[in-house]
Give the backbone structure.
Amino acid sequence: MRITIEPGGPLKGELTPPPDKSISHRAVMLASIAKGKSRIEDLLLAADTISTLKAIKLLGAKIKGYGQKIPVPGFGARYQNYEITGNGLYGLSEPASFINCGNSGTTTRLLCGLLSGNPFFSVLSGDKSLNSRPMKRVIKPLAEMGAQIMARASDSYPPIAIRGGKLKGIKYEMPVASAQVKSALMLAGLYADGETAIKEPSPSRDHTEKMLSSMGAEVKEEWGIKEGYITEDFMGMGAEHVIKIRKMSNELNPFEIRIPGDFSSAAFFIVGALITRNSEILIKNVCLNPTRTGFLGALKSMGAKIDVENLKVISGDLVGDLRVKGDQELRAINIGKSSVPLMIDELPILFIAAACAKGRSEIRGAADLRVKESDRIKAMAAGLKAMDIEVEEFEDGLAITGGKMKGARIDSFGDHRIAMSFAMAGLAASGITEIENGREAVKISYPEFFPRLYELLGSSRND
């Protein structure tokens, strides 16, 4: 369905983003292998996390929703709070059919690690987009640990067949920082004899480490600073990170968690407010875990003024409110490879900020964007060019010269972050912007995105 965005704005009012997607995935999976009942409050209800819930149910975990049901566009009324009863590390059972991971790369990669340690056969598959996303980076180290794991096209793409069993700990140096690969290896490490050590070239989001530690797993972290580390703009830039995990000698403890708002979803509204005149919004209950907020540092370097209010700790994570005012003059920025892992999901909307900034921005070291739900480098370059912005495309990023955007017809390529990024771009453009398949795309992570946008615009649209 085509979405029409009219220029102008402003965005006014308060917004609470949906619950954090990364934490939601991990909470469901870890609850399924704990011993006893875990309670998850404010689980994200979107296509990706629903895929994880269905997968865990197919693997035999007991899932019970509680509290009030809420309407979810495209999915009917669903519970947002869940009680998941796990039967321990080896309490999952062989699924009677293949596991449909939908469009979710997180579901697929984390399940690869989890299922590699369980002594039964399983198959992971998904939609057309997911089955074209590369999986060798997770399959290779799991095979080194002893997993019997095969995939299409020389173990490169789903469907993925796994016969889990006896694993051994390894020392693995990741060529590219990836929270999904790191998490998969940590999950496999729970079942592997000895110690599993994972070295990443720079920090990535650390939710798996924190949650496993809180459940009683033996997780250790070591830090080293790379030569030439000179900036403090982003937490951990230039720091090598080693995570060590040992096989569990007992069971993981169940837990209770309340999931905070998703920073990646908030990022679209942050930029939307920054680039539209007279905007002022308060984004409430946002997860401000330092491994997730490199994007704030980038915007700060561009001259944005964003106030953080009401800081608190919820379920072990820093949470706060963000006050954003519009009509700020942004300046160009250069981003390199070491910064990318701390803002990988926010790069599409950062490209929009760069298109509204004074000067030429260059964002490199982001080749992973080529293999997300779409080729996000290609998709963003095509959309920005259609909006009359000067763009130079590289294999690992974009150079963007800021200017005045004009309305255009944009192909979302079925990618939620492309659709939401250009929705915000349309507010700052001259003329109408139309986004193909926008409403269907946002169901992946933020089904309520367009209703929330219209509310902040003071509109009652429901098209």
Summary: The mean pLDDT is 93. The chain has two domains: 3-18+260-456, 21-248. The two ends are 9 Å apart (CA to CA).
